[in-house]
C-alpha cells in the first residue's frame, strides 16, 4: 500500500469511526438523557479508549451537539422530500406527521429537555436555528403555498398565520409522541398506529372538531 492509499484508508477509517461514535451516542443520549451518559460508556460500546474518542470530539457537549445536528439534518432532508411532492396539502402534512412519529417517537421529548437544561445559551441558539430550518420552515412554506392557492381560506379569520399553523402541527405531533399516548394494545403495529395518529392530527388541524 503506497502512502496515498494509506492516507485514503486512514481517512475512511476515521469517518467510519466517527459515524459509529455518533450513532452510539445518539442511542444512549436519547434513551438515558445527557447527564446519565458518560464518554467512557460511549467509548466502551464503540470499542475505543476515551483518548481515542476525544481524538474525534473534544468533550461530551461537542459530541451531543453533533448528535443533534445530524438528527436535525437527516430529518430536514426527509421532510423536504416529503413536502415537495405534488400532492394535496392534507396528504403532504399527513406524510410529514407520519414520518415524524415513526422516526422520532420519544427522541424529541428527551432532546428538547436536555437542550433546555444542559446546554449554554449560545448552543441553544445554534440548535434552535437548525430546528427552524429543518423542522419548522419547510412546513411554513407549505402553509404559505396553500394559502396562496386558496386551500386555507379561513385561516386568517382565526388569526392563524402559516407560522402559527406550522407550530400547531408540530405541537400536536409532539404531544402524540408521548410514550403513554403512543402505546397500544398490541393489535396494531407501530407503523399502523403512527399512520392513524397522523391522519387524526392533520384532520383536526385542517377541519377542526366540529
Distance between the termini: 72 Å
Order of helices and strands: HHHHHHHHHH
Gyration radius over CA? 20 Å
What's the total number of strands? 0
Indicate the structural class.
Answer: mainly alpha
Strand-residue proportion: under 5%
> How would you characterize the largest beta sheet?
none
**Low-pLDDT sequence parts:** 4-10
Give the averaged pLDDT, no decimals: 85
Q: What characteristic shape results from the CA principal axes?
A: elongated
Compute the number of helices: 10
Helix content: over 70%
What's the gist of this structure?
This protein is mainly α and 210 residues long. The chain has helices at residues 3-32, 39-45, 50-54, 60-83, 89-104, 107-118, 121-148, 162-176, 179-182, 190-207.
Secondary structure layout:
Elements: H1 3-32, H2 39-45, H3 50-54, H4 60-83, H5 89-104, H6 107-118, H7 121-148, H8 162-176, H9 179-182, H10 190-207
Walkthrough of the structure:
The chain is mainly α and 210 residues long. Helices cover 76% and strands 0% of the residues. It is built from 10 helices and no strands. It has helices at residues 3-32, 39-45, 50-54, 60-83, 89-104, 107-118, 121-148, 162-176, 179-182, 190-207. The protein starts with a helix and ends with a helix. The model is unreliable at 4-10 (pLDDT under 50).
